Amino acid sequence: MTDDVAAARAAAEEESVLFHPPVDPDATAAYGDDPDQLIDFYVPRATGGPGGPAPVVVVLHGGAWRAPYDRRHISPFAGFLARRGFAVASVEYRRGAGGAGGGDPVAGRWPCTFDDVAAALDALPELAHRHLSGADPRRTVVTGHSAGGHLALWAAARHLLPADAPWHTDRPAPLRGVVALAPIADFAVADKLDVCGGAVRQLLGGDEGFVERQPYADPALLLPTGIATTVVQGRTDADVPQAVAESYAEAAAKAGEVVGLTLLEDVGHFPLIDPAADACAVVAEEIAQLAW
């Protein structure tokens, strides 16, 4: 496939995702005082799995941790999961603001992006009890796409953070598993490949921050988690190449942990969260295998 053909295909896949109108949640709750500290809740629209209360799926959207990309673009995916019988909690979090003088937005805000994901997951059991009546928070799976896939892996590894990290926990999160979709999962490889225009280095605050903060933020350095983890990756992904996912899986294996790696042929970056794409049904099945 030529570069022009690959670029045209990637653009069409992204357009397909953005073509879907946003799906309004059944409820929205704040987990903090900032306008971005919100969780959208979607009640299950069907009965899935073997019956009983619906599992909870936490969704963390992507967008290179940059401000223009919020949870609205992943709301059709959240609605799709609700129609498959899951109770869904879609998390918003603070992202990078615009550059000086109206320049391009940077990736992430240190430490706010991480503060928010940790706070949202900590607040989720109580908020889910209030807004997802009948769901079973004991069967919670975290999923995320791209930068959100990174945050999903990171959220499951907080017990492995350095002891001085403000997000460190004493024990693993009570999760049934993580399904990371084209995640920015290995910062060294992603930085080498200049994924999303240097987003990883921006997230950590530039050259100096990259060295100092990587142990606090890089999922490939936070292993083994002891939590069942599956990575779903399109082989033709031009935004977050397959090499990033493979490197994370290899790091997990070296740490003594098996991470499932599902590679989808002729699939790029966005079909994983596109309800109109076959790849999205594969994602739902991977979530179901862990949740039920």
Describe the structure.
It is a single chain. By secondary structure, this protein is an alpha/beta fold. The chain has a single domain, classed as Alpha/Beta hydrolase fold, catalytic domain (Rossmann fold, 3-Layer(aba) Sandwich). It is 36% helix and 16% strand. It has nine helices and eight strands. The chain has helices at residues 3-19, 75-83, 112-131, 147-155, 187-192, 199-203, 206-217, 242-254, 278-291; strands spanning 27-30, 38-42, 55-60, 87-91, 136-145, 177-181, 229-234, 260-264. Strands 1-2-4-3-5-6-7-8 form an eight-stranded mixed sheet, with helices on both faces. The radius of gyration is 18 Å and the shape is globular. The mean pLDDT is 94.
Question: Top keywords for this entry?
Answer:
Rossmann fold, 16% strand, alpha/beta, 8 strands, 292 residues, globular, 9 helices
What's a quick, concise take on this entry?
The protein is of the alpha/beta class and 292 residues long. Helices cover 36% and strands 16% of the residues.
CATH superfamily: Alpha/Beta hydrolase fold, catalytic domain
For the sheet with most strands, the description reads:
8 strands, mixed
Total beta strand runs: 8
What's the rounded overall pLDDT mean?
94
Q: State the CATH architecture.
A: 3-Layer(aba) Sandwich
How far apart, in Å, are the first and last alpha carbons? Answer: 39 Å
Give the CATH class: Alpha Beta
Fold-level CATH name: Rossmann fold
Determine Rg (CA atoms, Å).
18 Å
Order of helices and strands: HEEEHEHEHEHHHEHEH
The helix content is 25-40%
Query: Which consecutive residue ranges, at least 5 long each, have pLDDT under 50?
Result: none
Please tell me the total number of domains: 1
The proportion of strand residues reads 15-25%
Coarse shape: globular
Annotation field: number of helices: 9
Label the structural class.
Answer: alpha/beta
Q: Biggest sheet, strands in spatial order?
A: 1-2-4-3-5-6-7-8
